[in-house]
Design a protein that fits this description.
The chain is α/β, with parallel strands linked by helices. The chain has two domains: 235 residues, Alkaline Phosphatase, subunit A; 166 residues, no CATH class. It is 33% helix and 21% strand.
């Protein structure tokens, strides 16, 4: 019996970047030492596809596209995936929303992200869940760092996804067939706006969301977490930002049936868990560790175990995007080096480099100097014994030498599955 070849598909969140002067005009990916990746570069193909045309994508659209799902066909709003990944069990007709804990001052934005400990964000979420009263039944659950999920279960009227975001920097757009996507537009105005109904049918939904925001802010300012952080002179959360409300299942095609391979997902963030669940992957739950070495070693362990049972494994790595939003490009290239030293090194020992396939790419580019997602093509490394030699992997190399078969990110998976 011939053993089926294995595939490891790694998405490093926001890995792509722009050239940085202090890195000798290189991007963090180009600047980073990647000695273990060299083993995969001996037999490799590059791609340099666009993700969403002229629009700067969020992670939901980028991950969907990388995994072979056209966001312009499937996306109903990121909120669905976020809440599904938090095990909130959203249902058709309910309203799922992505939440950020942030801060404002005199009606102006201070920060769209206030990072908190696991204990802090869970305590704050519990107070909101218990103390906020609006004219609709809801559930509110803490996510990672500064994130949370909100699901409105029932209200006086039907919920509609045709509402704007109140988070500066992300603009909701609507397309044919009920497709909804938000795009990173950058923070051009720090004024905090109310959520607006894009269609008349959404007026009730907008009013509920605005009421929830107002009452949540009052609860946050009177919370135990707020008082304790003020004593410690830490950044204070005092507001919530809502985006990407969704009221229906995107119904992603089952990836196992689509490609005839059994897929597992090693993912720690709620969004990526939600996408993996929706795609029919077997979810291997991992926790996002603060210690980088511990986190990467644990993920490598899980990938190795998954490869013994499954044909293909999707691994998601978050840290590169997080430091990019903070402008920490030195940390970014150090994280890429750690990926090479720990995860790529382990894979080079357990994969059969003559027939197995490694894919290394990202969901979008995040500029460390602009501190936001940008509209840029993404570098893709596809390693398999049938391909030729490359000496390095980065944006410039992929731009110069790439297969013409992959023009868009959504083309990556079909190409890989034919190998």
């Amino acid at each position: 019996m011939v053993q089926m070849s294995k595939t490891v598909f790694i998405i490093v969140d926001g890995m792509a970047d722009l050239p940085i002067k202090r890195l000798n005009g290189k991007t963090p990916l180009e600047y980073a030492l990647k000695s273990n990746l060299y083993k995969f570069l001996k037999h490799s193909e590059f791609a340099y596809p666009n993700v969403l045309g002229k629009l700067a994508p969020q992670s939901d659209a980028g991950v969907m596209a990388d995994l072979g799902y056209d966001p312009f066909k499937y996306s109903t709003g990121r909120g669905w995936f976020e809440c599904l990944g938090l095990d909130m069990q959203p249902q058709n007709g309910q309203l799922s929303v992505r939440v950020n804990f942030g801060s404002v001052s005199d009606g102006k934005l201070k920060d769209v992200r206030v990072y908190m400990s696991k204990e802090e964000i869970e305590s704050l979420s519990e107070e909101i869940r218990k103390k906020v009263k609006v004219s609709a039944e809801f559930d509110f659950k803490a996510g990672e760092g500064y994130r949370a999920g909100l699901v409105f279960r029932s209200g006086k009227k039907d919920f509609s996804p045709f509402v704007s975001n109140n988070e500066p920097g992300y603009t909701a757009k609507f397309f044919k067939g009920g497709v909804k996507l938000s795009f990173a537009t950058g923070i051009k105005n720090t004024k905090i706006n109310k959520i607006k109904a894009v269609r008349k049918e959404a007026e009730y939904t907008a009013s509920i969301l605005n009421d929830f925001i107002k009452k949540s802010a009052m609860v946050i300012k009177n919370s135990k977490v707020y008082r304790e952080r003020r004593k410690k002179r830490l950044e204070l959360p005092n507001y919530i930002f809502l985006r990407d409300a969704s009221n229906r299942d995107p119904n992603l095609e089952d990836i196992n049936r689509k490609y005839g391979k059994r897929w597992a997902a090693v993912v720690g963030m709620p969004l990526e868990k939600g996408i993996a669940k929706s795609a029919g992957m077997s979810l291997i739950n991992v926790h996002e560790r603060n210690d980088l070495k511990e986190d990467f070693n644990e993920k490598a362990d899980y990938v190795e175990k998954a490869l013994s049972k499954f044909d293909a494994v999707y691994l998601h790595i978050k840290q590169t995007d997080s430091v990019s939003h903070l402008g920490k490009f030195l940390d970014k290239y150090a994280i890429i080096e750690a990926i090479d030293k720990i995860i790529i090194s382990r894979l080079s020992k357990i994969m059969d480099l003559s027939k197995d396939t490694l894919v290394l790419t990202c969901d979008h580019a995040t500029s460390s100097e602009l501190k936001r997602h940008i509209n840029s093509n993404i570098p893709v490394l596809i390693s398999n014994g049938r391909f030729g030699f490359h000496s390095n992997f980065g944006e410039a190399e992929c731009s110069k030498d790439h297969t013409k078969e992959i023009k868009k990110a959504v083309d990556i998976m079909p190409f890989v599955m034919k190998i």
